[in-house]
């Protein structure tokens, strides 16, 4: 059992008011809030040992390097990567995906096919479209069903020996669907294709084991899991990371530089050109420790309770429709009120102190599938409460009354 | 026809009567619901301003030496604000439209809707109104 009141005390932002009302923060799928433990680490870094890493021989640089590399180790352990150097620290999921997409440019030709799921965030679509433009490879789409699940029969039929890469999110940001990535990975490997899993939405709820999944690439962002913005991870199997060329050139990523020829550093530095987000990386490690101390099983159980409660309560409102009704989903509820634009609902909810996301959630293909301009999305974290869901329900009813 | 400044003063007066956000928003919602703002034939892609969150359609035509605007949106609060903007800018001389500011929006407590990051199409809409005014001003010369 989670002691929610105690946990809430870790998050100073939850005490603030918005428009004169206590904040109800239900935009966790976009950015989770930051516990004091993580804030303290950020303050400590800039107060005590802010310095550039890896190159300095002075004490501060050494301390910063040790902490940064310790964070990498924490991330490795959390995701159960085989080697520490398989963890590349990036600026976030989008950066990680672009890094891989760019790397594949030299490995693909016109006969090759890439499979993307219909449930993807734009950041797991556009880099691959750019890759296809560069290489002449074809992008094919794994279709979705009305429940917001992937059509797995169609997926298997799309796979062929021409398939080189499959990229799917672990959990859909717009609908909350948990995709059957174990099967997706297994089937892709049977035809020799590599798989990239976008774990941005999964990592706040699930502890993925990259070795058990046998996944080739797994990417995520710290800010979805109690860490700061601007830092994230690319996990890649060693063999793939060795095969891919560097993404950006610069300092940190070299072995020897002469004007005739430069040789690159080994993993992970080959992909980490320039001064990284040092403080962010360290705080990412702290955020992982924080969440593990609460326990992912506890988090999943509690959030499922919130999801069940929220779904039931919201569905009691006449004319409210939920998009994404898979049995396998996390604590995300995407909904609309009949005949009412989501922007209007979101605007009024904000006036009542409730933060939700409205719009297409960077998933226009999903909105096109349902023929809607967008949805209102309430996404719950382990520090949310049923009382907050009650406040949401009351506010949605009021918005409906004002707008009808 | 009162000037742009006079209409803005009127609107500020009207909004000062509202006691809280609810009355203010209910008024805008009702404005958005009751006003037929644009002829259906102009609700086409030629007239659309795409915000990330809501869409806005704008049509302009010259009526003697004044510009008449009609506009619409798929979101009702956006439409209510459009109704207010149309009341201010429509049937005015192009020169006055070009020179007008929109500071009154702050004074009626709707500033956040005109933030460029809000992505509801309203900032682009005001730019578009001014572009039309500039075009018609050139014709007048």
Automatic annotation (TrEMBL), chain B:
InterPro entries referenced in this protein's UniProt entry, alphabetically: Fe-S_metab-assoc_dom
Pfam families: SufE
Gene3D superfamilies xref list: 3.90.1010.10
Domain Fe-S metabolism associated per the UniProt entry, residue ranges: 13-131
Superkingdom of the organism of origin: Bacteria
Family: Belongs to the SufE family.
Name of the molecule in the record: SufE family protein
């Amino acid at each position: 059992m989670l002691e929610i009141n105690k946990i809430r005390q870790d998050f100073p932002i939850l005490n603030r008011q918005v428009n004169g009302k206590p904040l109800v923060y239900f935009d966790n799928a976009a950015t989770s809030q930051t516990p004091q433990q993580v804030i303290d680490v950020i303050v400590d870094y800039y107060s005590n040992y802010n310095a550039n890493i890896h190159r300095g021989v002075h004490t501060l640089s050494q301390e910063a390097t040790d902490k940064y590399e310790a964070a990498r180790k924490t991330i490795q352990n959390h995701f159960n990567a085989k080697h520490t150097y398989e963890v590349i620290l990036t600026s976030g999921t989008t950066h990680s995906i672009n890094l891989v997409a760019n790397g594949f440019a030299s490995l693909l030709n016109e006969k090759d096919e890439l499979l993307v799921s219909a449930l993807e965030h734009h950041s797991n679509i556009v880099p691959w479209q750019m890759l296809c433009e560069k290489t002449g490879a074809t992008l094919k789409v794994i279709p979705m069903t009305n429940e917001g699940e992937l059509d797995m029969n169609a997926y298997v039929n799309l796979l062929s020996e021409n398939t080189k890469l499959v990229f799917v999110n672990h959990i859909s940001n717009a609908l909350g669907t948990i995709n059957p990535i174990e099967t997706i990975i297994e089937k892709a490997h049977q035809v020799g294709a590599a798989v990239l899993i976008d774990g941005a939405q999964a990592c706040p709820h699930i502890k993925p084991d990259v070795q058990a999944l046998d996944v080739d690439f797994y990417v995520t962002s710290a800010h979805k899991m109690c860490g700061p913005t601007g830092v994230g991870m690319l996990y890649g199997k060693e063999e793939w990371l060795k095969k891919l060329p560097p993404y950006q050139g610069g300092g940190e990523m070299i072995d020897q530089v002469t004007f005739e020829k430069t040789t690159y550093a080994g993993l992970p530095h080959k992909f980490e050109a320039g001064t990284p987000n040092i403080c962010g990386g360290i705080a990412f490690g702290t955020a992982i420790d924080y969440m593990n101390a609460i326990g992912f099983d506890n988090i999943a159980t509690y959030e499922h309770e919130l999801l069940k409660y929220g779904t039931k309560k919201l569905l009691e409102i006449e004319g409210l429709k939920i998009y994404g009704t898979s049995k396998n989903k996390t604590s995300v509820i995407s909904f609309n009120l009949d005949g009412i634009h989501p922007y209007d609902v979101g605007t009024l909810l904000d006036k009542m102190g409730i933060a939700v996301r409205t719009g297409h959630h960077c998933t226009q293909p999903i909105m096109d599938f349902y023929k809607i301009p967008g949805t209102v999305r309430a996404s719950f974290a382990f520090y949310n409460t049923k009382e907050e869901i009650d406040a949401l329900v009351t506010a949605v009813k009021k918005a409906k009354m004002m707008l009808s | 026809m009162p000037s742009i400044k006079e209409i803005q003063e009127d609107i500020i007066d009207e909004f000062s009567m509202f006691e809280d956000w609810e009355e203010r928003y209910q008024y805008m919602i009702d404005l958005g619901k009751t006003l037929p703002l644009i002829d259906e034939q102009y609700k086409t892609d030629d007239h659309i301003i795409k915000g990330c969150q809501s869409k806005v359609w704008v049509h302009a035509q010259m009526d003697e030496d004044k510009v008449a605007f009609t506009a619409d949106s798929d979101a009702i609060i956006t439409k209510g604000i459009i109704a207010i903007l149309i009341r201010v800018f429509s049937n005015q001389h192009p020169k006055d439209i070009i020179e007008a500011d929109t500071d009154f929006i702050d004074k009626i407590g709707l500033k956040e809707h005109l933030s460029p990051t809000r992505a509801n199409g309203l900032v682009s809409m005001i730019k578009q109104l001014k572009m039309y005014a500039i075009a018609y001003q050139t014709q007048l010369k």
